[in-house]
Amino acid sequence: MHRQLPRLTTALVLAWLVFAAPVPHQAEATNRARNVPSEPRVLRQIHRYQRETWRWQTVMGVRRTRSSRTVQTASRLRVRNLWRRRAVHARRRASHPPHRAAWLCIHRYEGAWADANPPYYGGLQMDIGFQRTYGRRLLRRKGTADHWTRLEQMWVAERAHRSGLGFYPWPSTARVCGLI
Q1: What is the DSSP letter of 161?
Q2: Helix (H) or strand (E) segment spanning residue 150
């Protein structure tokens, strides 16, 4: 009997491994058949949409949406879809600054969006002091305003407008555009 005990134990362990242990490939095959992306892929998508949302919120100068560290496995697709909607909303909102027509009119009389002639840079002709005050992050990350996108330049000007300066940093052009 003692000689058969190790064999019986080994047989039971092997039977458990074969029949009771989950098969990882089976779950993945089922998910693929239902068109459910793998977990690492969903997590990458969540992080990509978060970064996009936060980028646009930073450009607009609004507070970043908070993120929860704990994401349950069952709800990852819902979280991904939530961040996707947030990213789309932030992109749409950022692409329409409040005084967009005014900034485009000022740009028409100021210079090219990539104008790099000192002391004024970009399509809204911002000097270094203006860029340091209202576009510090962009100045640090991308350099002077001639390296910024049109939207980034408009949002920096919008920050100056909201701070109380209005359109007065562009006195002549603002008068021509009927803004002052």
Answers
A1: I
A2: helix 150-160
Whole-angstrom distance, CA of residue 35 vs CA of residue 75: 16
Q: Rounded to 5 degrees, what are φ and ψ at 121?
A: -125, 150
Token pair for 53: 């949302």
pLDDT, tens digit, for every residue of 11-32?
Answer: 665 555 556 555 555 555 555 5
Cβ atoms of 147 and 160 within 8 Å: the answer is no
Size of the chain, expressed as the number of residues it contains: 180
Convert the pLDDT of each residue in 100-109 to its tens digit: 999 999 999 9
The pTM of the whole model exceeds 0.85: no
Straight-line distance from the first to the last Cα atom of the chain, in angstroms, rounded to the nearest whole number? 102
pLDDT above 80 (res 130): yes
Place of tokens 């977990």: 39
Inter-helix orientation angle 39-60/76-94, to 10° = 30
Measure the CA–CA gap between 88 and 1, rounded to whole angstroms: 71
What does the block give as tokens for 106?
Answer: 């000022």
Under DSSP, the state recorded for 98 is: T
Exposed e or buried b for every residue in 52-71, given b needs 16+ CB within 10 A? Answer: bbbebbbbbeeeeeeeeeee
Backbone φ and ψ of 94, nearest 5°: -70, -30
- Grouping H, G, I as helix, E, B as strand and the rest as coil, residue 121 is strand
Q: Which residue has the tokens 């305003």?
A: 145
